[in-house]
Design goal:
By secondary structure, the protein is of the alpha+beta class. The chain has 3 helices and 10 strands, in the order βαβαβββββαβββ.
Length: 143
Amino acid sequence: MAYDIQVVIDSQDPHNLADWWADALGWKVEQQDEAFIRNLIERGHATEADTAFHKGALVWKEGAAIRHPGGLERAPRVLFQLVPESKTVKNRVHLDVLAGVESIDAEVERLVGKGATVLHEGRQGPTRWVTIIDPEGNELCIA
């Protein structure tokens, strides 16, 4: 049996990090259903402490997700999950953003302008990539 997957990234500020990654990838942040959240609170299945406000909307505090505009058939969902600790060591897994050889420098410059930091440039034969970190320190490569 083959399974579908989602990628989960730990975060101290999942909603803002989801916004950053959605912008970085050209993806969409999943909208959360405020009426559904309020209904669960009214029925005692959740509390106000489980929620937060992000850009004026009531959302689940624990996380936010993004999707490829082509849907889950095109790419897995990425979930940003609230954790209490900040990142302290290098990721064991990271995403490669395939911008194309002619777009690497422009994408790196754009993302640095939005809070990323360049770590290093790599090359293997004719293949080149730039490793950067997002605003919370998670590595990604622009290739």
